[in-house]
Design a protein that fits this description.
Elements: E1 2-11, H1 14-32, E2 35-41, H2 46-52, H3 60-65, E3 69-74, H4 83-89, H5 91-97, E4 102-108, E5 123-129, E6 133-142, E7 150-156, H6 159-175, E8 179-184, H7 192-204, E9 211-216, H8 217-226, E10 233-236, H9 238-251, E11 259-263, E12 271-275, H10 292-304, H11 308-323, H12 335-346
Parallel strand pairs: 1-2, 1-3, 3-12, 5-10, 8-9, 8-10
Antiparallel strand pairs: 4-5, 4-11, 6-7, 11-12
Bound molecules: 3-isopropylmalic acid and manganese (II) ion (MN).
Domain Isopropylmalate dehydrogenase-like: 5-342
GO molecular function: D-malate dehydrogenase (decarboxylating) (NAD+) activity; magnesium ion binding; NAD binding; tartrate decarboxylase activity; tartrate dehydrogenase activity
Function: Has multiple catalytic activities. Apart from catalyzing the oxidation of (+)-tartrate to oxaloglycolate, also converts meso-tartrate to D-glycerate and catalyzes the oxidative decarboxylation of D-malate to pyruvate.
């Protein structure tokens, strides 16, 4: 039987709850579709850090490289480990080391979900640059603790990095409704963002079938609230994409519904699938986290692995469950109830 080997990293807080949920849905889906998922769980997390002084072992990246994909829950337990340490010790190095340069985040209302907006029909695919830009990690601090203290954090935009994410955006737009919105802040940031706009214009000549528009990030934030139905594919830099996708999650009814895929389009290393939400320490281990974002992310994993029919079936099962009112009222249904509702809808 065809078997995929999956590295499972539940991480911290509700990461464990939602990863368990996603894993059980994926197992059922795989079984009924004639392939197997062989999971290997890694306890890498803030608890692991407290024990070992590292978020993952020194050879963690090399260990993960052998897998077909990575399923991740959430990382962060700020009461014990600063977020700047935990995220730079696990999530962000994986995205960079495995050249997962395209972070794909779909934003649309699931059936039955009441979003905060009047708009009911929108279907936005945010594509976030995921390896450089504002998250490059280039910088430093000097004169620490004195009045002369200075902190510098440099955004790095390379032609390779910008061109490949924009190309990815154009391709996605081509495969959808043919519209690409490229987001910058080139009226204020005159080097990197003008560079991004120029590359957008250059590439648009190669994609005459895609209608491309450039927006400033502030205007895009407003548009996502006022006219989300006018958007198809939205492509943005790392930080801008981060912010816009929390906004995207909000307009789709909350972070419990926002899925994401960190894709290495060249397939030179494994891709990683995780919900947009964090570890939510306040509700950790209570069994009330919404697993829909994680389950949807798991469907994106199967899609990436080539099991497109199963991915479509899982998303249809999520939709069937939410249409019946399961998982759509914040805090009402337990994680297990939602998971079982989706599994029931699968068969
Ligand atoms: C996300 C998260 C991460 C990010 C954090 C936890 C570093 O907010 O995946 O959106 O900013 O990329
Ligand atoms: Mn985020």
């Amino acid at each position: 039987m065809k078997t995929y080997s999956i590295a499972v990293i539940p991480g911290d807080g509700i990461g464990a709850d939602v990863t368990d949920a996603a894993w059980s849905v994926l197992q059922v889906a795989a079984r009924t579709c004639g392939f197997a998922l062989n999971g290997t769980e890694f306890p890498w997390s803030c608890a692991f850090y407290k024990e070992t002084g590292r978020m993952m072992p020194e050879d963690g990246i090399e260990t993960l490289r052998a897998f077909d994909a990575i399923l991740l829950g959430a990382v962060g337990w700020p009461a014990e480990v600063p977020d700047s340490v935990s995220l730079h010790g696990l999530l962000l190095p994986i995205r960079k080391a495995f050249v997962q340069y395209a972070n794909i985040r779909p934003h649309r209302l699931l059936p039955g979900v009441q979003g905060p907006l009047r708009a009911e029909k929108f279907d936005i695919l945010c594509i976030r640059e995921n390896t450089e830009g504002e998250y490059s990690g280039a910088g430093g601090r000097v004169h620490q603790g004195t009045v002369d203290e200075v902190a510098v954090e440099t955004s790095i935009f390379t032609r390779t990095g910008v061109e490949r994410i924009l190309r990815f955006g154009f391709e996605q737009a081509r495969a959808r409704r043919g519209r690409l919105a490229s987001v910058t802040k080139s009226n204020a940031q005159k080097y990197s963002m003008v560079f991004w706009d120029e590359i957008t214009a250059e590439l648009s000549a190669e994609y005459p079938d895609v209608e491309v528009s450039s927006y400033h990030i502030d205007a895009m934030a407003a548009r996502m609230v006022m006219a989300p139905e006018s958007l198809d594919v939205v492509v943005a830099s790392n930080l801008f994409g981060d912010i816009l996708t929390d906004l995207g999650a909000a307009i789709q009814g909350g972070l419990g519904f926002a899925a994401s895929a960190n894709i290495n389009p060249q397939r030179s290393a494994p891709s990683m699938f995780e919900p947009v939400h964090g570890s939510a320490p306040d509700i950790a281990a209570l069994g009330i986290a919404n697993p829909i974002a994680a389950i949807w992310s798991g469907a994106m994993m199967l899609d990436h692995l080539g099991e497109k029919d199963v991915a479509v079936r899982i998303i249809a099962a999520i939709e069937a469950a939410t249409a019946r009112g399961i998982g759509i009222f914040p805090g009402r249904d337990r994680t297990e109830t939602i998971t079982n509702g989706i599994i029931a809808a699968l068969s």
